[in-house]
Amino acid sequence: MDRAISETPALATPDPSQDAADIIVVGAGSAGCVLAERLSADPTRQVLLLEAGGKDDWIWFHIPVGYLFSIGNPRADWMFETDPIPGLDGRTLRYPRGKVIGGSSAINAMIYMRGQAADYEGWRQMGLTGWGWDDVLPLFLDQEDHIAPPNDLHRQGGAWRVEHPRMRWRVLDAFAEAAELEGVARVVDFNTGDNAGSGYFQVNQKAGRRWSAAAGFLKPALKRPNLRLETAAHVETVLIEDGRAVGVRWSRGGETFETRAAGGVVLAAGAVGTPQLLELSGVGDGARLSALGLETARHLPGVGEGLQDHLQIRPIYEVSGVPTMNALYKSWWRRPLMALEYAAFQKGPMSMAPSQMGAFARSSPDYATPNLQFHVQPLSLEKFGDPLHAFPAITISVCNLRPTSRGGIHARSPDSRVAPSIRPNYLETAEDQRVAVDSLKLVRRIAAQTPLQRYGARERAPSVAARTDDEILASARQLGTTIFHPAGTAKMGLASDPMAVVDARLRVHGLDGLWVADASVMPTITSGNTNSPTMMIAEKAARMIAEDLCP
């Protein structure tokens, strides 16, 4: 049945040739761009892509250092905030999500990371056929256009460009040397299925410019007459009739439209947007929907539950005698030189991702594979969107890759324009608290090694006064923040799992013609940055959806 969010507004009358499609994709983010390109490759299939954000016609979407200006800017970011988080002393956090074609791939850290083979083997062992490492590696390869010569682990010619960073920092090399003395070996490639070690991240850039999902997948496909993109198109509900998704209701500029879909609807609105839209479409926990005044089309209590995110803890170390971005950016005469260097050669600080140096390690011998990821930055600030500190410093950010805490994202209101409730529930479990303490101890051991002490590395945050486990945990609660990797809010699972939302073919349980294909379907979060795994999910989804449409 259709779900009415309130008194139904009068519908505008669109061009009759555009009020229907074969398939509708909701969200032109990382996943939606892949879906639109792949599904429209069949010229007989009419694909409509609806994006609530705008076009990427702002220079800072394309210059890598633009993340400093995009995150926390309403032009580029949906400006979500969490509910107060008990595990972080009741603090609320900004929860950035891209408000533009390309989605968060237009504002993120540009890090190319697949995760660990064990992540996907874990999915397969849950009974999710077709999601093991050997199943998904070919999907990563089919997308990839890697700067390295082709081999068993990398390919060229795909749409997703991967390059090496275009500058190095002495202070980051010193971190790698220090980490090696702590048993974290140097590696060249984090994308072999085993990402243990330290080294420079590979990045989604092309010739020194950010390479978003829109640049790689969507824009070339927009030349096709059977693919239509609508921006500033706010989807209010999926239309469900007799147990089948038959279209969507969406609005723009005060006008409301209904577009029918003969084949069905694919939700790719992300781990924040997708569960909210499912609930506003009558799909979710019946009691929760009833409390919002919504009719239930399908009772699925797992919708919005299972939120996982990588909590990053951001220790800051002041240094001296070595360049950092803080000092370069604060120097009035160096900034024009950085701009000239980038304009002439697409190199230098303006070409860099937020984090250049990475490391994967174990917080204790209890873990078979690395459960920590370091993002090491030659800069420091209080939080993204804030100015850099006046003193020279580095940030040795560390995050728990496999949190056991679970949160939720749910609609607050039947009005689709009201931001959802976001409850990450960081540090809720004793295991996550233990990992947080152990990770900060490891940071201190690395910082104490000679290569970093050569530059006088001195802890600014957390306070050196935090010595006991309880004091270190208290520091983690104050330093912890999101690293922008929400996942798991519409998880994949067998029909026997009461909290599963979609099956292994990403079809919503109990409904026809409705798929979910974004990070929300991850049953467990991947061990690393989630953008490229999300695009892999979309790649696989597009193939399965095409098969479902043409059995």
Briefly summarize what is shown.
With 551 residues, the protein is α+β, with helices and mostly antiparallel strands. It has 14 helices and 26 strands.
Written description of the protein model:
Strands 7, 17, 18, 19, 20, 21, 24 and 25 form an 8-stranded antiparallel sheet that branches. Mean pLDDT is 94; it is low at 1-14. Helix 1 packs parallel to helix 14, helix 4 crosses helix 14 (531-549) and helix 11 (430-447) crosses helix 13. By secondary structure, the protein is an alpha+beta fold. 26% of the residues lie in helices and 20% in strands. The protein has helices spanning 30-39, 67-70, 117-125, 133-143, 170-181, 213-221, 270-280, 286-291, 325-330, 334-345, 430-447, 450-453, 469-479, 531-549, and strands at 20-26, 47-50, 80-81, 94-95, 144-146, 160-162, 197-200, 205-206, 209-210, 227-230, 234-241, 244-252, 255-267, 283-284, 298-299, 305-307, 311-313, 316-318, 357-361, 372-377, 393-400, 407-410, 421-423, 458-461, 480-482, 514-516.
